[in-house]
Amino acid sequence: MIQQRRVRNPWPFAAVCMMVPSLTLLVFGLTQASVIDLLPGYVAAYLLIGVCIFGPPGKLPSPGQAVAFLLPGALLVVLALLDLGFWCGGWLLGLPAWGLLLSRSTTANPLRAVDVLKFLGLLVLGLAVFTFNIIWVIFSLGLFLLPIIPLVRLAYPEYWATPLQATVEVVPAVAAVIVAFAIPTPEGSWSSPWVYAGGAATAGLMITYWAWRLPRRSRRRQLNNGAIV
Q: Please, which residues have CB within 8 angstroms of residue 41's CB and are 6 or more apart in sequence?
């Protein structure tokens, strides 16, 4: 008799909760510090998001997955150091979804080019939401969805079956809102930090939700007796 082991899925929502305050702190930190000074915080945010995606399944990402996950952020940091724009900060918006796509990519089922193009399109849309959110403030309401989503899920017993996941989602979600309102608004800023945090939350949830709902493709194996698994 074959005993099936429960496979734990990534925690993309927790990754979004890590991304929102990190991106907000980085954006407003640019007014007071250089890119080099912000680099440790950027690296820490990158790694925390990676842990939320690749940690729960309990296996290390393949070399290809690791390179595909880390390389875009590293290249965009170079652009920031060359004073060509802080695009590495914007990349954090799509990093949870990008990691989720990579975590589902295998040698048998590689990531499709069409999915990469859709992801990039949504990332551009997310950057637009984040950038122009100071005009369309309604998108900032996504910030308050962060604590609401896990708190509602606490009503379901199956969510309590993974107490670590519940903790990693509830605590950072509440902390993201607190941090967004705790950051002082710099003099001359066009908008408050919580508005930018709300735009980051809305864009991050949108892109990550698309990646989560993307149908998983699996190669079915046919045994000699005709059974398909």
A: 22, 25, 26, 29
Question: Cα separation of 21 and 194, whole Å?
Answer: 9
Distance between CA atoms of residues 172 and 104, nearest Å = 25
Q: Is 64 helix (H, G, I), strand (E, B) or coil?
A: helix
Residue 6, helix vs strand vs coil: coil
8 A C-beta contact, residue 45 and residue 179: no
- Taking 90 as the threshold, does the pLDDT of residue 226 lie above it? no
Per-residue pLDDT reduced to its tens digit, 122-165: 999 999 999 888 787 888 999 999 999 999 998 888 887 788 88
Q: Identify the pLDDT of residue 176.
A: 95
222: which strand partners? 228
For residues 25 and 177, give the distance between their C-alpha atoms in angstroms, rounded to a whole number.
12
pTM of the full structure: 0.88
Q: How far apart are CA 209 and CA 197, in angstroms?
A: 18
DSSP 8-state symbol, 225: T
